[in-house]
Amino acid sequence: MRLAVLGLGAMGAPIARNLVHAGFDVAVWNRTAERAREVPGARAARSPAAACEGVDVALTMLADDAAVEQVIFGRDGVLGALPRGSCHVGMSTISTALSRRLADAHAQAGQGFVAAPVFGRPEAAAARLLWIVAGGARADLDRCEPVFAAIGQGTFRFADAPRASLAKLLGNFLIAANVEILGEALVAAEKAGLEPARLLEVLTRTLFGSPVVERYGRLVADTAFEPAGFRLSLGLKDVELALRAADELGAPLPVAALLRERFLAALAAGREHYDWAGIASVIREDAGLPPVRSRTP
Amino acid sequence: MRLAVLGLGAMGAPIARNLVHAGFDVAVWNRTAERAREVPGARAARSPAAACEGVDVALTMLADDAAVEQVIFGRDGVLGALPRGSCHVGMSTISTALSRRLADAHAQAGQGFVAAPVFGRPEAAAARLLWIVAGGARADLDRCEPVFAAIGQGTFRFADAPRASLAKLLGNFLIAANVEILGEALVAAEKAGLEPARLLEVLTRTLFGSPVVERYGRLVADTAFEPAGFRLSLGLKDVELALRAADELGAPLPVAALLRERFLAALAAGREHYDWAGIASVIREDAGLPPVRSRTP
Amino acid sequence: MRLAVLGLGAMGAPIARNLVHAGFDVAVWNRTAERAREVPGARAARSPAAACEGVDVALTMLADDAAVEQVIFGRDGVLGALPRGSCHVGMSTISTALSRRLADAHAQAGQGFVAAPVFGRPEAAAARLLWIVAGGARADLDRCEPVFAAIGQGTFRFADAPRASLAKLLGNFLIAANVEILGEALVAAEKAGLEPARLLEVLTRTLFGSPVVERYGRLVADTAFEPAGFRLSLGLKDVELALRAADELGAPLPVAALLRERFLAALAAGREHYDWAGIASVIREDAGLPPVRSRTP
Amino acid sequence: MRLAVLGLGAMGAPIARNLVHAGFDVAVWNRTAERAREVPGARAARSPAAACEGVDVALTMLADDAAVEQVIFGRDGVLGALPRGSCHVGMSTISTALSRRLADAHAQAGQGFVAAPVFGRPEAAAARLLWIVAGGARADLDRCEPVFAAIGQGTFRFADAPRASLAKLLGNFLIAANVEILGEALVAAEKAGLEPARLLEVLTRTLFGSPVVERYGRLVADTAFEPAGFRLSLGLKDVELALRAADELGAPLPVAALLRERFLAALAAGREHYDWAGIASVIREDAGLPPVRSRTP
Description:
Chain A has 297 residues and is α/β, with parallel strands linked by helices. Chain A has helices at residues 12-21, 48-52, 65-73, 78-81, 96-108, 122-126, 138-151, 161-191, 196-205, 211-222, 232-249, 254-268, 280-286, and strands at 2-6, 25-29, 43-44, 57-60, 87-90, 112-115, 118-119, 130-135, 152-158.
């Protein structure tokens, strides 16, 4: 099976390495070409179109809607180069509107489209522990199974691409919402002289223990907002995509609206380099605490 | 060890039964006396004071601040009857202000006070699966260990009573906040034609799985708001206690403020008998869905 | 007509002076006795009860519910001293619950009760420009007309005391809400390099011009938060009374809930001495601006 | 002076009529051509480009960003047809981003651009009572003065187009925010048995009286949401433009975020034909009241 991987960022590079390691024939392309060196065993292509020549499946893992539009619909893009009967697997977190547009455009070109955004950070990508949320035609999903098996620990299937994209956006909304509610609770605890890490322990060992609560609760309790696993500015992007999807659906998301204001306040304070758990820094300041706890030496 | 249990509601009765079963000498009292029959093997007392005669530990499990104040400070109350050197274990979810006042009043009377609110519903109480959040003097906490062991699966210790009460209030806030954010996400999914139970499955099997998400997510996905495990009106009370504690601490809780409005809207619609997961009925209506999904036969 | 004025703070003192000036026989009492000197021509009484001896109308202008309860129901309080057939005019901004309780207690004592909170700051009180929101029995309202005429520019009548108290609370909520929405708009303008005072001019000269917008808009545009005309901590009190009233009524006030969080954040930052327009300082910080604009010399 | 007016909707038509009446030579164009009949004395053109031939000033009054983009940048659009040295006056309420793009594009084409959105409903347009918020180069603003004098009661000048567009968006945000806060207060009053119209009278006659409060307060108090003066769906558009502008500026607008959820809830309930004051229908339902008061015969 011949594959192309377009986009070799923090997520795309380990995914491509795992695909090479699983024995696939892999062509890669990245906007800044030198990153291709990070995937030994793969062929570096000069353009998205060149990477797609003769492939069965082209995977994209790009930053946002604009990057995806450029790589698919732009000059030397995927749409014109992907063989009829082959399939584009879009792993980026994109708007439901673009997901729908991609499904339509690929169908018209006789190509398949699977939206396959993932849950998991770069470490999970490296360890083949991603969760894949895949939406598309059943035949395309079936065909992609060996690809998904090489990069993740499980796949959830949805009936079409926009619904998979929505599931991912709602998942990211829930991660940010967990940061918010944990932030509010742990900051109130801290003001009461109740050690946040102690409250977090109670929470995780009783009713609240989950990977999200354990990971992000710890970041919040320790105010460990740097270095970023997932940057605050990207978090805002995803919350705004969730709001936009909710807008189209006619479904209010008031906590997402509140989160949006938190992200804006954090960015206005110059914290775009923080992890998105860093919205808790604004919660801290609203409670009269410094944005980050000072550490005693 | 001689015990008194004051308050034999949905939580107090199974706790008292477990204490009898564990071999303790148990006196019981309830505002409506006939409920004493639900605890075979215990002595029914005529008043809180009568129940407390000669006991080592008196446990209270009552509805709210007003009920606790009445039973402790009122006529024939606990404060005047509890032997010096014995200990009051308050298991009700109460304000941090009352928790502080109880600690002070009992200390002045030569009695101990442990705030010991619990996480867990009546089924958990019956199955001895409660989580106990206990705050007080170390000696009092030590002395209560056999009591806690007979009713729960684990105890978390805090340095004083108000902090244990706060931890419980913040926990209840987090449960309600989970209902809110799950409600927003599952309702948006439903409007997109994405089966809520399916999205919930993705959430619980990936990053979000926790007892709270599994239990309340299911209630929300199924709109199974009746019968109530924990009534909506009690949920409002606890959210308001959390807001009041946050107020004293100078720590804003904007999601709690939003929750308060949800509870008020649900109550204004006449849903005081719903489970507190039923605030999702208001989220549904805001999205143009009926408060409860209609079931096809 | 013989009057008593209880409470000689920033509002009570000018009101008492105007009543003396209008020719009434006025007794005054204040918790700190020396303030009686600020009302030349009035008799200083030793206690609320002493001030009420033989009066036709007793006016109270006190800080909050607790102060009113103390002065009315406490030792040497108004309730026991006011002659049958005379009337208590409560001008403080109090909870609807206390307003109801006062109406009941005075009725039982054969006394009248009029809730008569006012709109207007100390300058307006001095200039007899208060707006009086008066609720009570028609006969009591009629009897108080000459009193109101001596201190205000107009009176609005309501059918009972709790409704007058509610109208005042909702009015104060609307003032704070105007600060919030003006704050959001003027801060966004400032970030766009659009002079806030210029936008305010557009607003006040077109659709938005009102005394509230002109006064508070200017405080916000100039970040003139000190000295306080009405202290931020008092503003929080009133917003919380509005929330409590709304709670009893089953009517959500989400903007009031948001305001509460703003006040808490401002207080957590140590700004209790700011004017309540100073909640805009938190809006500014959320936008990455300093709490107060620096002035160039 | 030769003018073109593009867009003859509820606002554009009366504006064009006033310009004809003031003696200008006016060409008109509308997407649905028959509306040109509503402006007797004007020449009907076949396309935006045709209308712009030889004009000094071209005014556009269109529904949204998309319509403006189509008319300016599309085939037979304004940009290619407007004579060098002439000026485009954009009166639509558009995004700050489009306002900036228009300023740049027209400058590059040797044309002037003035953003000149207005405050006022169709009645105000007919009565020449619009308030004009105009931003652009001083020479262009000067040149447009006689045009503005023919259609409005006053003009406010801003240094560039995006700032004028922002001022208008913030103004519309403030109108919607006034509906929200009045709605919350009047609904709480109604639940207390306090006639909303009575409370509104108190508000308008004391500190709060302004055209916005009087007009929208009345619509809310009477639940007179139909027919729409300005449709709810257009209100959502403007609130979202304000949020988007705030996003670019890094200035949170939490009340706008709350408003957005209100609009979505109203639309989800099928009320797109309501006046935007109709967001109060959702506030009513959250308080357990019917969306519209029933009238007694």
